[in-house]
Amino acid sequence: MFHLRTCAAKLRPLTASQTVKTFSQNRPAAARTFQQIRCYSAPVAAEPFLSGTSSNYVEEMYCAWLENPKSVHKSWDIFFRNTNAGAPPGTAYQSPLPLSRGSLAAVAHAQSLVEAQPNVDKLVEDHLAVQSLIRAYQIRGHHVAQLDPLGILDADLDSSVPADIISSTDKLDLAVFKERLRMLTVGGFYGLDESDLDKVFHLPTTTFIGGQESALPLREIIRRLEMAYCQHIGVEFMFINDLEQCQWIRQKFETPGIMQFTNEEKRTLLARLVRSTRFEEFLQRKWSSEKRFGLEGCEVLIPALKTIIDKSSENGVDYVIMGMPHRGRLNVLANVIRKELEQIFCQFDSKLEAADEGSGDVKYHLGMYHRRINRVTDRNITLSLVANPSHLEAADPVVMGKTKAEQFYCGDTEGKKVMSILLHGDAAFAGQGIVYETFHLSDLPSYTTHGTVHVVVNNQIGFTTDPRMARSSPYPTDVARVVNAPIFHVNSDDPEAVMYVCKVAAEWRSTFHKDVVVDLVCYRRNGHNEMDEPMFTQPLMYKQIRKQKPVLQKYAELLVSQGVVNQPEYEEEISKYDKICEEAFARSKDEKILHIKHWLDSPWPGFFTLDGQPRSMSCPSTGLTEDVLTHIGNVASSVPVENFTIHGGLSRILKTRGELVKNRTVDWALAEYMAFGSLLKDGIHIRLSGQDVERGTFSHRHHVLHDQNVDKRTCIPMNHLWPNQAPYTVCNSSLSEYGVLGFELGFAMASPNALVLWEAQFGDFHNTAQCIIDQFICPGQAKWVRQIGIVLLLPHGMEGMVNPDHKDWHQTNFDINQLYDCNWVVVNCSTPGNFFHVLRRQILLPFRKPLIIFTPKSLLRHPEARTSFDEMLPGTHFQRVIPEDGPAAQDPENVKRLLFCTGKVYYDLTRERKARGMVEQVAITRIEQLSPFPFDLLLKEVQKYPNAELAWCQEEHKNQGYYDYVKPRLRTTISRAKPVWYAGRDPAAAPATGNKKTHLTELQRLLDTAFDLDAFKNFS
């Protein structure tokens, strides 16, 4: 039940006609006297929030009327007077005079219609029919808008006109209109006919087509609706369940004459089109056989982006982070980011040498960072275009994460200073799931960037695939509806319409801080690239494209005809930009070396130097003083907020932590706590993200405490460690790997002085984020010359549920130089202390590398997986290799077998060795850092046991674990002097058996092989 009085501030009172109509439709059997009338549901003109029944509303109005007839709407005043006089309910209503803002002619005409109309019910029904018609245009007008610049396709893949729209997209052709009207009359949609065209109807408050007029003839109503919703702009917004937002959009598109541009704005638009078009033509003339994925067919994209940036800058934004696929990237770099043209042109030189480390990537994948003056607003603006591989939409979450980081570091909690713009292709926007994952991050508290402007370059084709074969939804943009983002479809051959929707999109983002989509319906003049032949698969489309006049020529002719510019001025604008290109081309010939660092999208000024000198290639001790360890441990085992009730089970966990601290010992969770807490003390922001990371998938972490008596009351003890500490952000993510890992990667790109970690719920779940790992994390420095310090925590372990690299390992600081030379660091720690050290080392290193940590499950609570404070004090470091330290190490000459392993299997091996009484015959060495490989330390281990067989032992199946990686590197270490045997599970297609008994049987076979000293004698 919903009482109408509760929404009085949102909706004007229902008129008598609306109430009578609503009542008669929903309660036909009830009497029509005012004492019995109830308002059921909502009339056609009401908004979706009106639902249920309003009881006693009319009775209350009647009582109010008795006291003061002016306290109710005029129509109710008339209704109550007539009813009191004895008029039957069907005839009690009379139309009041229109509101004062209406024209006198409309008032007189409307009044004469009422007086001449004996059937008041028919008049009410007609008014409601008109309201239904208006609503139909608002909901479905975009389906008949003229969006395709080629005039051969329908942007929504459906050529039919919606049945409830009286539409003729051919300038309201009267014959077409009459036929549509006849069909609707016969179909019973509205009950209107041709004689109603000149009748005047009151307009509901849910439309702005009247401007200053409150009533219009039906013919004019339809004409204005056609102009608002069925021309070159198609607006999708009526699925939004917020009245204020819907009204805002209606006002922007329905108000008569609202889409007006000054001559100066038109000249600016023309100049931007000149730059966009002539840039592509210049590249085509100079490098006709080179792929560049040009923008031909959507040249309007450049002025569109600049309009969004201009309007956003005007609204206070000073940093815009962009992501886009390869099509049009060079043009965006040149004319939006304003990268030096010679830097772009020299990239076409096949003899160009790389001056910087790293291979780089093709020119249309690279990014850029630039701070400049916005000439329209005279404000500083920073623009960053994030590098992106061929995996079209892969950069979407990266851009979002980088935007979130920049907002975080500048204290922009509402997204007023930093914003993101994402460009998409139509086929990729509809076809790639990462788009959906990214949208679902858009309004989550720890991931929102307070609105992104999405611009879809809708070529109406994906490579060679027709849209009808590429998507099931009417539009490629339908995925955006899941977050109630308005979608503005626009014909890209109407530059002024494009500019207008871009202004509205920027204003929407500034006003509501929510996502918005601009769908530029365009075409692709060439094939997939400049060398491709599109006529093979789209002959009819490309026959039309060959005849299509370029948008620059169309718009120039329009402005010349309007007298905004003359032909000589237009030609001078072209000549001026052509000269700029030619001069840059001449300078580009002097660029013989590619400075890839000029293409960085996330520079870190000041990080790589210290006091003006390059930072030392060394790493200090990662240990801490005992008082710091104790303080962090005490906070970790307490609740630093008063009157906060925690779960009884958590009380026991915290008590156990406290006992560990008293005993100067840490387990896995406490080691992580101490690493994080100490970095926070040093001003390092820490962000931990992933599914269920607040508690920890295995219920070991508990970094966010929940009050058991007060809903949504939480406490993060880590943020109560030090008076002026850095903030700790720990956030459960959506059930996404691809999107969230990309987001955290983008966050890590923004600053080197932060520890950003993503934890997979289970280690193998990372494979759904493999694109981010393969395209950004693994090759980041080599491909993009981008150092990133992101940490991946991958819970790993069998729980029952090459050409080897080679370095001179005798050089000084081999371990640090080796880290610098690698693409990422991979570790599998077997002790909490080593986990603690590697997290701290990640920040204390003079550079940044991605860190992959195979974190355990069973070791989280394993009684032997403990580390003493002594191994974490000043002077201690991360151990790349943990050598044997038992009896076998005391008498190395008599050791028969040296087992190498990594991670938790070490504890299975030590238990079995002790059970067999072989502690003196078998030595076990743990490789904690797998990449880069610790050649130097392992050589010492092998040399220490001259008479021992070498075997690698792993719990994973032979084809799935580390054996194929480790064996050739061990052989390189010992110069192939000995074989390296394998002790472990056989190859398998699946990672686990799923059967506990089978799992234990396989484990025992593994152990039997590892400790059978005769196991390898039968092998040559």
TrEMBL record:
Superkingdom to which the source organism belongs: Eukaryota
Reaction(s) this enzyme catalyzes, per UniProt: N(6)-[(R)-lipoyl]-L-lysyl-[protein] + 2-oxoglutarate + H(+) = N(6)-[(R)-S(8)-succinyldihydrolipoyl]-L-lysyl-[protein] + CO2
Gene3D superfamilies: 3.40.50.12470, 3.40.50.970, Multifunctional 2-oxoglutarate metabolism enzyme, C-terminal domain, TPP helical domain
The EC number(s) this enzyme carries: 1.2.4.2
Calcium in keyword set: yes
GO CC aspect terms: mitochondrial matrix; nucleus; oxoglutarate dehydrogenase complex
GO biological-process terms attached to the record: glycolytic process; tricarboxylic acid cycle
InterPro entries (alphabetical): 2-oxogl_dehyd_N (IPR032106), 2oxoglutarate_DH_E1 (IPR011603), DH_E1 (IPR001017), KGD_C_sf (IPR042179), ODO-1/KGD_C (IPR031717), THDP-binding (IPR029061), Transketolase-like_Pyr-bd (IPR005475)
Transketolase-like pyrimidine-binding domain sequence ranges: 666-862
Cofactor entry: Mg(2+); thiamine diphosphate
Keywords: Acetylation, Calcium, Glycolysis, Isopeptide bond, Magnesium, Metal-binding, Mitochondrion, Nucleus, Oxidoreductase, Phosphoprotein, Thiamine pyrophosphate, Transit peptide, Ubl conjugation
Subcellular location: Mitochondrion; Nucleus
GO molecular function list: metal ion binding; oxoglutarate dehydrogenase (succinyl-transferring) activity; thiamine pyrophosphate binding
Family statement drawn from the similarity comment of this UniProt entry: Belongs to the alpha-ketoglutarate dehydrogenase family.
Protein name: 2-oxoglutarate dehydrogenase complex component E1
